[in-house]
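Recall that a protein's primary structure is simply its ordered list of amino acids. Everything else, from secondary elements to tertiary packing, is in principle encoded there. The following example makes that idea concrete.
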Amino acid sequence: MAQMRDKRRSLDEAVAGIESGMTIGLGGWGSRRKPMALVRALLRTDVTDLTVVGFLGPDLGLLISAGKVKRAYYGFVSLDSKPFYDPWFAKARTEGTIESREMDEGMVKAGLQAAAARLPFMPIRAGLGSSVPEFWGEELKTVESPYPAADGRTETLLAMPALELDAALVHLDIADEHGNAAYTGVDPYFDDLHLMSARQRILSADTIVSTEELVDSVPQQALLVNRMMVDTVSEAANGAHFTFAGGYGRDEAFQRHYAASAKDPEAWKTFAETYLSGDEADYQAAVARFTQEQKEQQA
């Protein structure tokens, strides 16, 4: 029996293969179980001109704040709670400093499904009859169904192109050293699709345990990711912060602090120096100080 590989890497080692100009997919949903520790590791690199794909939130915002994004393909970009919009994305979108490919959420799923199945496109009705094709210029095509209906008519469908990813970054709640992983919250989102659509499959998890403990700790249907989908796995406690994950809620106070800081250049400079200038341990220590200050102010 072949021995299963130990795929554990540091966060910085995990993102070392991402290069400028690549297309990356970010798992999670809005401000929910986002691969924030991996995004913060990416901020520490000199990578630029990324194309970002997903159901996006502050993960995209942070990358935009550091000037790393050229284009984004998304069903939405949301913080999920007040102020709801991501300030960095809103600024880039309105000023036209990134190329935006807005679409129906089902189109993102169809594009990832096509890439995962190694197909050039996936036929879908979503997007038809809307202004979405106009936003995409010449990128979106339609196809005629080869199967006529009973009345002999054929249907025109949107041919959603495969969203092929050079790398996918996802965060799960618990994993083993081989890359098997599970979520402990209520929703798997589409993290498995992101991984199956990518050439580099990068996973972080709040906790890495033995395979036996992983299997015993969650119901079978929560084992979303198997080791065949993963190239590296990094342990990152609180790694989805400030978005929520299965083991902790969204840090609403910190998310508001992030959004408010983005409105003012001096405030953002202080935010970046405080939270984004060091490694992940420095970030988590700074967050702990922020949390303590919030408690003292409320006492």
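The chain has a mean pLDDT of 96. The first strand starts at residue 23 and ends at 26.
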